[in-house]
Amino acid sequence: MLLLRPLAVARSPASLVSSPVPRSMNMLKHDLVYLTEDASHDAAIEHINEEAFGPGRHVRAAARIREQGPHDLSLSFICTDDGETIASVRMTPVLAGGVKGHLLGPLAVRPSHKNRGIGRELLRIACAAAKRKGSEAVVLVGDPPYYGPLGFEKVAWNALTFPGPVDPARVLVMPFAADTHERLKGVIAWRCDEGTAAGI
């Protein structure tokens, strides 16, 4: 596996590069490492997303936004266990009404590693990185009971227009400015973000 650049967030104790997590009482510890995504991870990420969401994932409204342009490699991360990619999160630059933000997802963890906090850690790392890069908000389509405790809030009903059907109750945002909700009105679409395609 190629040597990757270290996480920009590796300075904080909660995002140490190596984070041993017990597999079970009868098995050895996991050696989990969180890394920035690069092109060598594409096949593994595709497999993880296929396993998690199936072929129907490509017709979802959020997926249609992602098809409009590349995600930001510098804000997209993976988790490996003994060198195997077992989880992934991606960030896509979007203009959501009047907000220059990022669309989070897909976020997926292999079934063998679920319920260990890996998805939450990937989400935390990605959102923190987006905020540092100047993103005004992180938007996603997901379950409020899961994402609410992690800092996401409901967007006003039908405030954002997606390129396809979406349940307004599942459109959430992590705002980084006091007036974010006021400006989250209109179409949400991919935007060209300097350095996105190059992953810098």
Automatic annotation (TrEMBL):
Transmembrane segments: none annotated. Pfam families: Acetyltransf_1. InterPro entries: Acyl_CoA_acyltransferase (IPR016181), GNAT_dom (IPR000182). PROSITE patterns: GNAT. Residues 32-179 form the N-acetyltransferase domain. This is N-acetyltransferase GCN5. It comes from Shinella yambaruensis. The lineage of its organism: Bacteria, Pseudomonadati, Pseudomonadota, Alphaproteobacteria, Hyphomicrobiales.
